[in-house]
Structure formats: C-alpha cells, structure tokens
C-alpha cells in the first residue's frame, strides 16, 4: 500500500509575475514586481518609482510563459501533474486596479491557460495575489495601507470567481501573507512603499502601516472566501503561510520562550486569523510591543468570522534557530531571519536545509487546526550546469526533494491529513527575493540568464524524469 493516499494531488507551483513576462502587452499595467530591478543575494533588488531606461527589470520578459504556456503545461502534463498551482496577474485584468470592468484581453489569456490545463487533465489551483499588485495602488494609496484596496481587490477576485468557478476548484487568497509581519514583507506583500526608491529590504518600516495593511488583507481575503462559499459551494479556499520552523537554539528557557513567541508571531498569527476567524489573544502584546493601534471598522470582525478558510497551505524551505543571545551567528533566508543551526547544511544561497522540520511543521499545523493541509511550495534554488550534450544532472535537487517527500510521508504516517504537493517550481523562473535567473528551481531548464540573454528554449533536467516516476508511483519510488 502506498504511503500517500489515493488521489493525492502531485504537481508544481509558479507565480504569474515570475514567469509570464509580457509585462505591458495587451494594455497590462505595471505591477510592484515590474518596478523591481535585478539583484543578487549580496546586492538586494531595488524598487524604482519609474522605469529606468538602462536597467534590467527581470519580470518584464521573465521566461515568456505568456507566449509559451502551451509548451510549458504540456511539459507539466508529461511529468504527470494532477494539479498546477499558478497565480493571476491582477494588472493583466485591471491595469491600475481601479477600473470598473476587467480587460477582456487579460481574461481571454487565462481562459486559454485553464482550457489548456483541463485538456491535460490538470486541476488548476489559483493564488489570487502572489507578490503582485498594481503599482498605481502603491502610488495612490500606499498599497494595502489604504482601506480602499479591500473593495478593489474584492472586485478583482469576485470577477475571477464568477468567470472561473467551473474551471478552478482550489483558490488561495494571498501568497505567504505572514511575510507582512516582518519588515521584509513591506514592499512585496503589502506594497507600503509609496514614493520609495531603493533596496526592497531597506524601505522605511512603519509597523502601524504594515499591520493595518495586513488587516485590510485579512478582511479582503475573508470577504472573498465568504462570497465564494455563498455563490459557489463546490469551491475550496486556503490561506497560504510561509512556514519557517523555529527551534530554540538551546534548552535555556529564555531561548525556548523566545522561540515560542517568534513562532506565534511569525507563523501562527496570520493563520489564527484566517482559520479561526478572529485575532488571537497574543495579538495584544504583539501590537503593543510595536506601538500598533489597529483601526477596525464596524463589520470587520464579522467579516473575519464569516470568511474562514477550508484548508491550510504552506510554503516550506528552511528552518532557523532562535536565541536570546544577540551575538549568535545569523542564517540567511528569504523573508525570515534567525540563528544558525549547527546540525544543518545550507543551500548555495545560505538557506538551511531541514526535511525533518517539514514533518515537524505539518504535525504542528494539524495539531493546531485539524483542517486539510497542502504543501504548495518546497524546492531547492541552485546553479545548474548544462553539459555539452545539453543534459543537466541535478542530483542535489533530487536529493532535496526526496528527503522532503519522505518527511511528508512521515507526517501522513503520524496522522496528518495532507492532500497535495506542488513543489516550487517545475520550471526555472525569476527568483522572488533576488530577481536572479541563476537561482534555478525547475525540473525544466530555461535558457535565460541573469543579464537577460538566452534563447528561452526549454529542456528536461534529470529531476524531470525522477519526478515523473515519483508521480507515476504515487510517491513510492523516490530513487
Ligand atoms: C516563496 C515565494 O517565498 O519562495 C516564491 O512564494 C519564491 O514566489 C520562492 O520564488 C522561492 O524564493 P526565491 O527568493 O528563491 O525565489
């Protein structure tokens, strides 16, 4: 008997802004990522207030999925995908976010994408907002700090639900919503960067704005979920949390308490609101420590209660240690930070690799909420070498994923109700944190480089064939 349940949904995950390109085609408006330059792990990408002529903006072409999605989805089908997690570019439908009606050209594009998935028997799972929002809304409202965004997002999201409720069953509202709890989510998650130009991690941080913006996302998410449940009862909605497990560095009770507090604030704060429909009691101290006084409008609390999610989804890449010792060595991460764990190896980008942490996280989530769980992101960003014959031997990626799939099997054995796995990413794409291409995740290689050159040709890596076998055997043959 397989360790994964029958009907377990294997697939892969991408986001619109990291793959589509065609950033101004068909009247599409500029989004926040379209205003971000390239970068590296040493030199963070910058956000600019206007497009600089000689500067590279990696999302403008990305991997040109907009013109090549049929080839890409056919490759996903060849691997045996049952599900494909993707997102919609808000600005392809509503270029500024303020139009009354969506652009038909944008809707037609996604019509064709969903039809292509269906033709290959692939179930689409759609993220409504994946680090993408109209840049106009940043300029005018300081992003999600403006309450106006709730209605604007509601219009965008319900237009999608009305159009696609027959083609798309699984919906996620906001990708990695909890990144807004920390300063690093300021630009990418909530767009609180009005008038700011500079490295995205150095944006002036105003916790009052950031948490107010997050509150607006909670209300928007809940209103969309409630609308979906009321009008289309067959649909299922999930939250999406970036899960970075935090261990106490030592058994010093000060470390243990601090790890508990960080875990609550970073990992659970958002899911407590979105799964339970109300702010947790510890929100009081979290706000007080940061000088935040949240403004709630009448009806907000009812809205949160009425729009709780059906399932929990998470991304998982790494774990950290937490310590009260301020001198401890720091580990790198995408939107989270913490101390080095001496037992773990790291990726080339310094992310600590910890498959056991995934099993631990899944057990913790299940223990806290008892709702179905999806791992909608997990994967290894690495530099790949193309051999003279065109082959790519990415054994390191296979090893990473094998260990994490084993961890998921372990969690299922522990009793966790895990429904699906969509690794990041089935195809090479633009890195969200650095804007690089050389940080590759794909099973499919894309001939595109950091300087913007490349033929954009697709080719299969060793991991392509390995994952094909994993899916065909429902996770039994991990090589
Ligand atoms: C998650 C995001 O943070 O991690 C993705 O949801 C992102 O958009 C992925 O690409 C990997 O991070 P990075 O920075 O290596 O692209």
Structure characterization notes:
- The chain has 479 residues and is an alpha/beta fold.
- The chain has helices spanning 16-19, 65-79, 90-93, 104-119, 135-141, 148-164, 207-231, 253-276, 283-290, 300-306, 355-369, 395-413, 462-472, and strands at 9-13, 46-47, 83-87, 123-129, 170-174, 198-199, 236-238, 241-242, 245-248, 312-315, 319-322, 330-331, 338-339, 373-377, 418-421, 444-446, 458-460.
- It has a 9-stranded parallel beta sheet with strand order 7-5-4-3-1-15-14-10-8.
- The protein is globular.
- The model has no long low-confidence stretch (mean pLDDT 96).
- It binds 6-O-phosphono-beta-D-glucopyranose.
Question: What's the helix and strand layout?
Answer:
Blueprint: E1 9-13, H1 16-19, E2 46-47, H2 65-79, E3 83-87, H3 90-93, H4 104-119, E4 123-129, H5 135-141, H6 148-164, E5 170-174, E6 198-199, H7 207-231, E7 236-238, E8 241-242, E9 245-248, H8 253-276, H9 283-290, H10 300-306, E10 312-315, E11 319-322, E12 330-331, E13 338-339, H11 355-369, E14 373-377, H12 395-413, E15 418-421, E16 444-446, E17 458-460, H13 462-472
The chain binds 6-O-phosphono-beta-D-glucopyranose.
């Amino acid at each position: 008997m397989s360790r994964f349940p029958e009907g377990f949904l294997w697939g892969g995950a991408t986001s619109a802004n990291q793959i589509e390109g065609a950033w101004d085609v068909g009247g599409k408006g500029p989004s926040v990522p379209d205003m971000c330059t390239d970068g590296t792990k040493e030199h963070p990408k910058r956000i600019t207030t206007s497009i600089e002529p000689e500067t590279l903006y990696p999302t403008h072409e990305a991997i040109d999925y907009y013109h090549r999605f049929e080839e890409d989805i056919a490759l996903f089908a060849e691997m045996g995908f049952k599900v494909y997690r993707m997102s919609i570019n808000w600005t392809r439908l509503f270029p500024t976010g303020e139009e009354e009606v969506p652009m038909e050209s944008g809707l037609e594009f996604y019509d064709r994408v969903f039809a292509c998935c269906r033709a290959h028997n692939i179930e689409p799972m759609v993220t409504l907002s994946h680090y993408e929002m109209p840049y106009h809304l940043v300029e005018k409202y300081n992003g999600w700090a403006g309450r106006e965004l709730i209605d604007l997002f509601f219009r965008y999201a319900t237009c999608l639900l009305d159009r696609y409720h027959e083609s798309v069953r699984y919906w996620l509202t906001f990708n990695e919503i909890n990144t807004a709890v920390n300063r690093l989510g300021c630009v990418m998650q909530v767009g609180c960067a009005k008038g700011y130009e500079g490295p995205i991690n150095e944006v002036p941080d105003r916790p009052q704005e950031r948490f107010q913006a997050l509150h607006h996302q909670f209300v928007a998410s809940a209103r969309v979920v409630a609308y979906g449940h009321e009008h289309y009862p067959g649909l299922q909605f999930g939250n999406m949390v970036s899960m970075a497990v935090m261990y106490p560095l030592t058994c010093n009770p000060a470390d243990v308490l601090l790890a508990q507090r960080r875990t609550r604030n970073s990992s659970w704060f958002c899911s407590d609101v979105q799964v339970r429909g109300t702010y947790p009691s510890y929100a009081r101290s979290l706000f007080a420590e940061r000088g935040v006084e949240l403004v709630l409008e009448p009806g907000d609390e009812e809205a949160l209660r009425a729009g709780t999610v059906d399932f929990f989804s998470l991304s998982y890449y790494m774990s950290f240690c937490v310590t009260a010792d301020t001198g401890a060595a720091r580990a790198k991460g995408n939107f989270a930070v913490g101390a080095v764990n001496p037992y773990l190896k790291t990726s080339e980008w310094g992310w600590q690799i910890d498959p056991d942490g995934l099993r631990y996280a899944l057990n913790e989530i299940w223990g806290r909420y008892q709702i179905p769980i999806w791992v909608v992101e997990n994967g290894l960003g690495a530099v790949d070498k193309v051999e003279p014959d065109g082959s790519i031997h990415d054994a390191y990626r296979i090893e990473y994923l094998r260990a994490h799939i084993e961890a998921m099997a372990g969690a299922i054995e522990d009793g966790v109700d895990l429904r699906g796995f969509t690794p990041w990413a089935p195809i090479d794409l633009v890195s969200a944190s650095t804007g690089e291409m050389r940080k590759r995740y794909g099973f499919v290689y894309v001939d595109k480089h950091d300087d913007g050159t490349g033929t954009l040709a697709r080719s299969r890596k060793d991991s392509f064939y390995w994952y094909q076998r994993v899916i065909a055997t429902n996770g039994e043959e991990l090589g």
